[in-house]
Amino acid sequence: MTGTPVSSISLDATISELTLAIGQLLRRLRAESNPDGLTWSQTAALSRLEKAGPTTTADLARMESVKPQSMGATLAELEREGLIERQSHPTDGRQILFALTAEGVQARRKRSAAKQKWLLAAMAELDPGERQTLVSAAALIKRLSETEPEGPRVRGRSGDGTQRDV
Asked: pLDDT, tens digit, for every residue of 76-94?
């Protein structure tokens, strides 16, 4: 689509191209940053725990828009791998919190570093004008992602079978 005036590009074609490009970039980033072979669900749970701190299964399931049973299975595997551990809830003895172990923190750092390394190398291949275009596009994409659509949200299934807004 390069070289085509923006005014002659249909909105549908733009949406299609943007969706394809973002999807390809995300898949490449996941591939580059997955040396330990974790599933997308496991990676998402680790990320949530890193950001939110110790959390219950139910709260993690809500954050990720999955069923508590699915999140429980994900957490069980992460616990077997030594990436998370159980902790007592400080105010409710009936609840269990899950938190990253030192190994889990290290795994998150490795993944982030691998992603950063690949992206830096890929962007180094671009000329300064292209890099500036990416900076501008990133700001616009962020703004798009923060826009609330009018009307009800459309739900669909992601690649791992969990429901997501699409």
From this structure: 999 999 999 999 988 988 9
